[in-house]
Amino acid sequence: MLEGTLVAVPVRLGGILPILHVGILSPDQGPDGRRTILHNSRRYGQCVETLAADFLYGQTGRAVLLGYPGCLPPGAVVERARERLGAPYRTATYNCEHYAADCHGIAIASPQWLAWQRALVRVCLDPWGRQAPTHLKQHSFEVP
To answer: Could you report the per-residue pLDDT of 71-83, keeping only the tens digit for each?
Structure first.
């Protein structure tokens, strides 16, 4: 696989929200013979390069290949990723997706974070999906 390729593993943020944790495939191998992964980790609180087993959060399955989103050469992507090691993790402004996009030189965004924000706003502004629950309709009355 090409270094700089994006890989992901399904995790639950805070043990609740299902997300894909995104990382960048490194050209280097760990002592286990598997490639290391560059990623911005909530668990470590910063951008790190870890063994694949750490990136997989102990899961026995394989990471999902997300592809190669940018036009930068693979070596440049890995170099940019390593330059950012130690940068702090910020859920809303610099999470694993922001980091991956930044390293690839594309628009920095987090589609998953935006989707969760939109869902939360919908629930807060319209908790019943644009209609009142049936138990409230049954007990409605005109105010005299």
So the answer is: 999 999 999 999 9
